[in-house]
Amino acid sequence: MQDTLQLSISKTPNSRVENLDYHNIQFAREYSDHMLLADFKGGEWQNFRIEPYGNLSISPANPAIHYGQSIFEGLKAYKHEDGKISVFRPKANYDRMNVSAERMVMPHIPEEIFMDGLTELLKLDHKWVPDVEGTSLYIRPFMFATDEFIGVRPSQDFTFMIITTPVGAYYTNPVKVRVETHYTRAVKGGTGFAKTAGNYAASLYPAKLAQNDGYDQLIWTDGQNHELIEESGTMNIMFIINDALVTAPTGDTILDGITRNSVLALAKDWGYKVEERPLSVTELVESLKTGTLKEAFGVGTAATIAPIAVIANDGIDYTLDESGRVFSQKMLKELTDIRLGRSEDKFGWNYFV
Question: Is the overall model pTM greater than 0.90, yes or no?
Fold first, then answer.
């Protein structure tokens, strides 16, 4: 690989961006004009290209279909009031994607493929970045196996891609969640810390059961004894208990969330007491009963901050006071303002295209 990415660009003759209603954007329903692709074959990365967005042709024996050898990331681009476009912490996503790649026996992605490819793709599709309040351009990098072989072994060939989609809010209202004490999202020694397809496939059925009962998502507990709080749905989860911000420590079973890390950094900078520690279901329920739990919210790229209105456990719904969402509302505003250039970016999180 050379330091500068040798990228071929094929532009679409018929852009669809003029049909985009910036004031009525549903989450991930329309996709931008172009996509980035790169192939790993013969032990090296090659064929770096941007093409018009479209369907792929793959073998029915593709190992990603049969064995889930696939990883992905999620990040967002924002349009500032002066027209500049920034991406929030893309280097962190790049680093985490290679952590996932190692766990899933996939090749390391060179930084120039990820960063230079992303930059050129966004330059080409800059009109797809909406400028309406509460909207952004969601960016989905992903890599999947491309061998034509159904034997159970790591693939030798892979494709890396980036697609983008304009999005509005992921959750339009505060969410209702239920503590899950039967099904498991991840176990020690497993793939819970990696963003790999199988993690999300395994969560669909228990999440559907919760939705059938009127809840939006689950609070996942540890896979061994179901005694410790881990994540909520596809997000990290945080609590304000007494005067402390409490969240589970990362590890084998918990994704090292970039929004999570951003919230913790800002909270510490503001002087909040931050506790990254195990939180038991018993302690959570006790804090709900006594009122020492002031706020609960999910954090992640798609939702940024998702306030939790109801936590259910053992058949009992505990409703959180809407007026208590002081920290989460302040955090959402600050993250939004940093991403849009309204507040000082003291941590250097914004990457300008």
Answer: yes
